[in-house]
Write a structure and sequence with these properties.
It is built from 10 helices and 8 strands. Helix 6 runs antiparallel to helix 7 and helix 6 packs antiparallel against helix 9. The chain has 262 residues and is an alpha/beta fold. Helices cover 46% and strands 18% of the residues. Strands 3-4-5-2-1-7 form a 6-stranded mixed beta sheet.
């Protein structure tokens, strides 16, 4: 499939492909993210999966940053333990600045994927396509009970920060709640994979307007109102796919707590 990429992104695709082709320890290069979903623009990241030979994988993992430096002017890089993905090397190149993710895997680990990647290079195309054809591909959507068991704890935690006057902490918790709960549930309502807050502005309807009301200013009253709006929006979104068992005393208890802390 041909794709028209921004000039810088097209250049980096070719640079990474060239690096992989020249390193005999590496067997394939795949691309995911907006490269396959569409909507890739000049502000987009590039998400690559680099497939290494099984017997060379340890050596490749130890030399990831050196491999990344061959691509271009690497400014900074760190591994993805904070998102539960130590195989990932998150890179910033430039100028001009561009964010590039390089995830190093083996062919045997391609059995479970969140999306079917595009194949940019392979030393054995037939074998690689067979691996991808056999893979279980599923986005890790959360269940209604996953949301229910976490939503009230997170809302209460943020409300305690508000009660103490720790407004920055309370505001930060609201952002976390949007990313982990409200955004995914809005995507669910739209029949889309639960991709956090990614491109949430593209969803139409009153719920996105209500989501905007969960973004407060640095003011205690504004933060409290935003928490109340977050409660209301969660309760509304919960009706789409109710949990097997709702948490007792909610939402009344959290609304009472927010009111008592004013």
């Amino acid at each position: 499939m041909s794709r028209t990429l921004p000039t810088l992104h097209g250049e980096f695709v070719e640079r990474v492909r060239s690096v992989v082709q020249r390193d005999r320890r590496l067997t394939a290069l795949l691309a995911g993210g907006s490269y396959i979903h569409g909507g890739l623009d000049r502000h987009s990241d590039l998400d690559f999966v680099v497939v290494a030979e099984e017997e060379s994988y340890g050596e490749v993992m130890a030399s990831r940053k050196e491999i990344a430096t061959r691509v271009g002017d690497l400014l900074a890089a760190f591994s993805g333990e904070h998102v539960g993905e130590p195989r990932l090397l998150i890179c910033l190149y430039g100028p001009p600045l561009i964010h590039v993710d390089l995830k190093f895997v083996t062919a045997s680990s391609l059995d479970r994927l969140v999306e079917r990647p595009a194949v940019l290079f392979s030393r054995d195309p037939g074998r690689l396509e067979a691996c991808l054809d056999a893979a279980v591909i599923a986005w890790p959507d959360a269940s209604p009970d996953w949301f229910e068991q976490r939503a009230w704890i997170w809302l209460h935690y943020g409300a305690t920060k508000l009660a103490r006057g720790e407004l920055f902490e309370a505001i930060g918790m609201l952002a976390f709640f949007r990313d982990q709960v409200l955004g995914p549930m809005l995507h669910r309502r739209a029949g889309r994979p639960q991709r956090g807050m990614r491109r949430i502005e593209m969803l139409d309807g009153p719920c996105t307007e209500q989501l905007a009301k969960t973004v407060p200013t640095y003011d205690a009253v504004s933060v409290r109102n935003a928490y109340m709006q977050a409660v209301d929006l969660y309760v509304d979104l919960r009706t789409d796919e109710p949990p097997g068992q709702s948490v007792k005393h909610m939402p009344e208890a959290i609304r009472s707590y927010l009111g008592a802390s004013s």
